[in-house]
Amino acid sequence: AGDSAAGETKATACAACHGTDGKGTSPIYPNLAGQSATYLESALKAYRAGERGGGMSAIMSPQAQALSDEDIADIAAYYASLTP
Amino acid sequence: AGDSAAGETKATACAACHGTDGKGTSPIYPNLAGQSATYLESALKAYRAGERGGGMSAIMSPQAQALSDEDIADIAAYYASLTP
Fold it and tell me: In this prediction, does ipTM exceed 0.90?
C-alpha cells in the first residue's frame, strides 16, 4: 500500500483539477476524495500506458507518464484517505 | 440533465460491481456515489466509444454500448444523487 503522507506532497500537480480536498474543481473532473486506492492505481496505470483514451486523457496520460509505480501508490493512498 | 429516478431503474446491472448504494463491491471497482454527473457521462461515453481501455474496460465497454445518451444521462444523475 502507498504512503498517503508522501502522496500528499506528490499530488500538488493534481490539485489544479482535482482540488486540494479531492473534490473536482469543475464538473468535468472526477472527485477523488475517498475513492478506492486500488481503483485509482488501476486508472493511473491505464492512463500511463496510453490505454485509457477519451475524456481528459490528453491531460492525464502525460501526467501519469511522469509517475513511478511508487508515486502512483502514494497518490492513490492519499486521495483514498480524504473524506468524500 | 438526466432523470435520477429513471436512472435508478436503469442502473440495476451496475449494482453488481458498483453496489446498490454506489459503493464499489470490490476495491477494483470505483465508488460512484456523489461523483460528478458530468464526469460520469464523459466516462461512460468514452467506454461506449471504445476509447477507454485498460482497467475493467472489457466489462464496461459492452455495458456502455447497450446505453443511449439518455440512459447515460439518467444513470449519471442517479449516482451523482447518492451520498458518498
Answer: yes
